Amino acid sequence: MGRLAGRKVTGTGGQLLVEQLKSAGVKHLFANPGSSEAGFYDALVDSPEIKMVLGLHEGVVASMADGYAKASGQPGVVNVHAIAGTGQMAGQLYNSCRDCSPVVVTAGLLDNEYYTDLLGLSASPGFTQKEVVRQFTKMSWEIRNPEAIPLATRRAFKVATTAPFGPTYVAYASYALVAQNVSGTIYPREQFTIRDNASPSVDAIEAAAALLVDSKFPVFFIGDEVWQSHAQNELLELVEWTGAAVTVGYDAFRNFPDHHPNFMNWHRHAKLPPETDLCVSIGGKIIGGWGERETESSWPIYDRQMAIGMNTEHMARNYPVDLAIVANVKLALRALLDALRARVPEDRMKPIREARNRALAERSSAVRAEDEARLKKEYGARPIHPIRLSYEFQRVLPAGAVIVNENITADHAPISFGFRTSHNEKIWMGTCGASLGWGLGAAIGAKIGAPDVPVVLSIGDGSVMYSSSAFWTMKRHSVPILVVVWNNSSYQTVRYVLHRMSGRAAQTGRYPGVYLGEPDLDFVLLAKSQGVSGECVTEPDDIAKALQRGLDANRRGEPYLLDVRVARTGPAVDSTWH
Prior knowledge:
Elements: E1 7-11, H1 13-23, E2 28-31, H2 38-44, E3 51-54, H3 58-72, E4 76-80, H4 82-88, H5 90-99, E5 103-109, E6 139-143, H6 149-160, E7 168-173, H7 174-178, E8 182-186, H8 202-214, E9 218-222, H9 225-228, H10 232-242, E10 245-248, E11 263-266, E12 278-282, E13 304-309, E14 323-326, H11 329-343, H12 346-378, H13 386-396, E15 402-406, E16 427-429, H14 439-449, E17 455-460, H15 461-464, H16 470-476, E18 482-487, H17 492-500, H18 504-508, H19 523-528, E19 533-537, H20 543-555, E20 560-565
Helix pairs in contact: 1-2, 1-6, 3-5, 3-14, 8-11, 10-11, 13-20
């Protein structure tokens, strides 16, 4: 047998870390440096192969790594500072955890178990640093032996990039990073990566085909494993062959064209045909909503339920399944299509499919008609109605543009999200974690991960202020993003929830902590202070030209910001009490 292709390296602990990162294929390090990581940064001086993208807060660089992983399909790597930096990026690590993003977080460690347990910037006595992020990672480690640095780094990559994906965390003791004359073996990435190519069993596919053939009306509940396995075309083909309905949960991507007539929107609110009897989860995360008082009746229970994917954590977790197929989604869907075509002749399937398509088209057409009526009504409204801004997004932004979204209450109905540029579809990228402060950093990471694709950030005014130092990174590293701030001077989501309570806030019109005016936030000045140009948009007929100016700036390699003053929507829009 031949030897594995490792190479011996001798140097500081930091040099071993850098060499293993290079062999893992790392091109970008998203970082906010600290003194306890000095041995690592010193080793980067002679390694131009790794470009450090500097952010001014740990939460910003963590979301950069997340956006990079989502856009590029490669693991995002981030370095943060010891215990405090680890804590400060935890909100964004939560998002990566919920989205199953392959992110590797590295940090320095001041060892509170080497001698004294009361070190500055170390974990509290009796605790470890990795405990801070343990629930938001697939696995976390603390490394004190400098010779173990390459091994620990490979392990972090292996765990993060093995399906189901997810973030990992490694803290290296500061003395291990500066240790001299350390020897270790460096291996290439292919020798510690497990490919996500698990094929489904023939028996399982035949059982799945039988369930679909016997179904009166199937619904496919889809999730991010469709995008992660590049199975969008197979899913579209399966839907159009079966005539099935398509619904979604809370996902980071729009895994199916959302203007397709078979798309029925969010599963909990979908108006499905009454004869719907089979639910097939295809890479979906069957999780609860935003309320803690979930019951079994919160999720429709069908006659039959099936799950396909690699993430067994979500299969049969809260709801029973008749069949679970643990396999790569793309391979499973291709096998299922072949099995269905072998079972059912086209002349038999065609009338079934057409009847299903008619039933679904009636429902989706009614939703589209409501959206169009709302757009017509609000088209020239002042302040600008959010649906008009979305309409201009769809009209002006190029097909295939990535729209990074951190705007929970925006009215995106006119925008056609999907993956087919021939249909003028845009690519949605978000986070189902909903921990604010993600968008600016994620957009930077997405543009670096997909440099040839236009990237537009759609973000609420409240969200900007969680991570506004990211404008500096855009300018420093010349990251050409179009940032569109939907500025309504309000934490609108919070106002919605307070109003639905029908309590004192709704009775008095006083909504604590919701109004963001007095003083008003000026995002053009905020961006300008960090070197990013922009403009304020207040008239609906000015939106298109402003978007075009932003895209033109991006083509010149410059970031650009639009501060669009939009109307508040929903209940109690006139309340400015504080």
